[in-house]
Write a structure and sequence with these properties.
Blueprint: H1 27-46, H2 54-63, H3 66-79, H4 85-106, H5 109-120, H6 129-144, H7 151-181, E1 184-186, H8 197-209, E2 216-218, H9 235-246, H10 258-274, H11 280-285, H12 293-322, H13 331-341, H14 356-372, E3 375-378, E4 390-395, E5 401-410, E6 420-425, E7 436-443, H15 456-473, H16 489-499, H17 506-512, H18 524-534, H19 539-556, H20 567-578, H21 595-598, H22 608-625, H23 631-642, H24 650-658, H25 665-670
Parallel strand pairs: 5-7
Antiparallel strand pairs: 1-2, 3-4, 4-5, 6-7
Helix pairs in contact: 1-2, 1-3, 1-4, 1-5, 4-7, 5-6, 7-10, 12-13, 12-19, 14-15, 14-17, 15-16, 16-22, 19-20, 23-24
Length: about 675
């Protein structure tokens, strides 16, 4: 057993890492040791004198690399929510080393020969569906890594993989650095009119934390649209905040990402060409539930036409409300004003009934208990990686402990923007491991003694990310590579989007929505107004999302022979060609800070949110048609989706649940995109 605290077996519940015993200096030695151990395991499998069998080759590969998985589960959980200069440097060094290590495994000729032989004979092996899917996936992954290429092709793949790993790591670090550096300092509190007391206090604290002697600091979230833009009454302040956001990583400073983007795009296209694909989008979509790039482009085109028409109608209403023309930095403000004008009650009061801790316990956990029989017990004695992180032990309906849930909800400079779910440990019957799941949000931390109140977007995000958590916690598969959210990228958002439906469900809302000071339940008319206000997406939200999806696909439809010199010009032309260019509605993420696709795993896959939403909208209707929030419905959904991971065909399982293929009409209704016939 290793003496390195990163690799040593943890005595804590379900193998929770003992974060307090680990220092940053432990990580590089741990990865070095773990990679060496993994290579020894792989060499033993590849060099076995026995004839290849599913057990001694494919299943043995699933058992291998446990030390490396343990190290990665700890380190890469820290990099996103709690980075520092030393960890950033470690990540940069590890990027190339891990890429080389993964290539050494995938391109091992003796190993690939065993995998290919089993794949050729798969029909005669008598495998069940999960095992057959694992064999086929292992073979395809090897081929896509370059195992079937000649020596020259494999060397090119190694070089591309190593360089891409460094570039994508650098991109994420630059986006975080620029988001911190571009935060807007406000001198006069009057310029923050419209923000609540808690938000102003948080801005003052952020200024102090950033080293400013006075003033108020408006920090930047990851998307283009900053939440404060909906509240600030001062148009000049809105403009400063908007321009700080939309200009990130484009200022020619140390955080400029344009050169990195162009190199990433070129290398991805070269890799796709090496493997016989036209472009990176085709390479990615070959492993997704969408049939091909043309199908995705067709869906985005159809939605874009309807969204832009709806956007024109929405803009007319906004201009009428504003009494004239409005600018891009005014859009969110007037959208919020429009929502208020359409409600008979003060809709902004809704947040007073959405205190974070109450929503979590009596909303998120309550829905999970009613649907799936889960219960949660906070374990304050267990160590965490940051003082703000909280840990719960999770029990099933029989009282069996099935995993751990970590909640990291508050924003801080060391945390990248956005919200996400991460696995420190994956569920696996083969390895006898229980899941340890982390949810990360970026909610402003309240001052001591003050409540943390959630707006509609934050409320939805909390339920959304917990949907990913349920996918991980309720996983019941044998093989770790098929666990939980290890499904095609354009399916992974489906369970999380389904869980959003419970945020404003009458039964769930009634259980958590209590005034943070008086404890009074939310008035029926305010609850109904909240549901009506969020029942249909704004055209603005649909257009900004579609624009980002269009950009993602445009960059990754470039071939190895295409040349781009100006990313801003390319960006504008791509949006114009797709019919979603708007001077008033920028993409949710502009190219230069589009971390999902240049620093994360969504390259050529950002469309997946709306692709999954087709399934989500149908499933929401299925729940409602069958009685809504019931244990029976939860059990059926868990059996069809949440427990299966990638052990079955996820689309076939969903069609079995519905009794038919999903239709797009529920999604169109939700987004207000149906064409009127009146």
């Amino acid at each position: 057993m290793s003496t390195n605290p990163v690799l040593a077996p943890s005595p804590l519940l379900h193998g929770l890492p003992d974060f307090g015993a680990i220092s940053d200096s432990d990580f590089l030695p741990a990865f070095t040791e773990a990679m060496a151990e993994h290579l020894r395991e792989v060499d033993a499998i590849a060099g076995s004198p026995q004839e290849p069998t599913f057990t001694n080759t494919i299943e043995a590969l699933e058992r291998s690399g446990q030390a490396l998985s343990q190290a990665a589960g700890i380190f890469y959980n820290l990099i996103g929510p709690d980075s520092n200069p030393e960890r950033d440097a470690i990540a940069q060094e590890l990027a190339a080393k891990l890429a080389a290590h993964n290539d050494a495994v995938a391109l091992n000729p003796a190993l690939f020969a065993r995998i290919r032989r089993l794949h050729d004979d798969r029909a005669a092996l008598g495998l069940d569906e999960p095992s057959m899917r694992l064999l086929e996936r292992t073979f395809r992954d090897s081929v896509r890594a370059g195992a079937a290429l000649d020596d020259d092709g494999q060397q090119q793949m190694r070089e591309i993989s190593a360089r891409l790993s460094v570039l994508t790591t650098s991109f994420s670090q630059k986006v975080l650095g620029e988001s911190n550096a571009a935060a807007v300092l406000i001198d006069d509190v009057a310029d923050l009119d419209g923000l609540g007391e808690a938000a102003i206090a948080a801005a003052k604290a952020a200024a102090v934390d950033a080293g400013h002697e006075r003033g108020y600091l408006l920090t930047l979230g990851l998307p283009t649209g900053q939440s404060a833009l909906a509240a600030l009454t001062n148009s000049i302040t809105r403009r400063r905040l908007f321009e700080a956001s939309v200009g990130r990583c484009l200022r020619g400073n140390e955080f400029d990402t344009r050169a990195i983007v162009l190199e990433i795009v070129t290398l991805r296209a070269q890799r796709a060409q090496l493997l016989g694909y036209r472009d990176h989008a085709e390479y990615v979509l070959a492993e997704q539930t969408a049939p091909d790039a043309a199908a995705v482009e067709s869906m985005l085109a159809d939605l874009s036409v309807a969204a832009m028409r709806a956007g024109g109608r929405e803009l007319t209403r906004l201009r009428k409300l504003a009494g004239g023309d409005i600018e891009a930095w005014d859009m969110q403000y007037w959208l919020a004003a429009l929502r208020r004008s359409q409600s008979s009650v003060p809709i902004d009061d809704f947040a007073d009934y959405c205190e974070l801790n109450t929503v979590l316990h009596d909303g998120v956990f309550h829905a999970a208990h009613v649907l799936y029989g889960l219960s949660f017990r906070e374990r304050t004695e267990l160590p965490s990686y940051h003082p703000d992180v909280r840990t719960w032990e999770v029990f099933d309906a029989n009282g069996t402990s099935i995993g751990l849930y970590l909640g990291d909800f508050y924003a801080r400079p060391s945390k990248r923007g956005g919200a996400w779910m991460n696995n420190i440990v994956d569920q696996s019957d083969l390895l006898a491991t229980r899941p340890i799941i982390v949810n990360v949000l970026n909610v402003t931390k309240p001052q001591p003694g003050q409540p943390c109140l959630l707006d509609f977007d934050q409320l939805t995000t909390l339920f959304h990310e917990f949907g990913h958590t349920l996918h991980g916690l309720l996983s019941a598969v044998r093989y770790p590579s098929q666990s939980g959210t290890s499904v095609p990228r354009d399916f992974v958002e489906f369970p999380s989007q389904v869980n959003e439906m419970w945020a404003l469900h009458p039964e769930v809302l009634a259980n958590y929505a209590r005034h943070h000071r008086t404890g009074d339940p939310i008035p029926a008319e305010l609850a109904q107004a909240g549901r009506e206000a969020t029942a249909v997406e704004t055209a603005y939200a649909t257009i900004e999302y579609l624009a980002a999806s269009v950009l993602d696909l445009a960059w990754h439809r470039l071939t190895a022979d295409d040349e781009v010199s100006d990313i801003e010009a390319f960006e504008e032309q791509a949006l114009r060609d797709a019919g979603v260019y708007s001077e008033l509605i920028p993409p949710r993420y502009r190219t230069a800070y589009f971390n999902h696709i240049f620093g994360g795993g969504y390259a050529a896959g950002y469309y997946s949110y709306i692709w999954s939403e087709v399934l989500d909208a149908e499933t929401e209707q299925w729940f409602l048609d069958n009685g809504g929030l019931t244990r029976t419905n939860g059990a059926q959904f868990a059996d069809a989706t949440l427990s299966r991971g990638d052990s079955v065909d996820p689309i076939a399982a969903h069609q079995k649940l519905l009794g038919r293929k999903a239709r797009i009409e529920p999604l169109l209704r939700r987004r207000g995109l149906e064409v009127s016939t009146g």
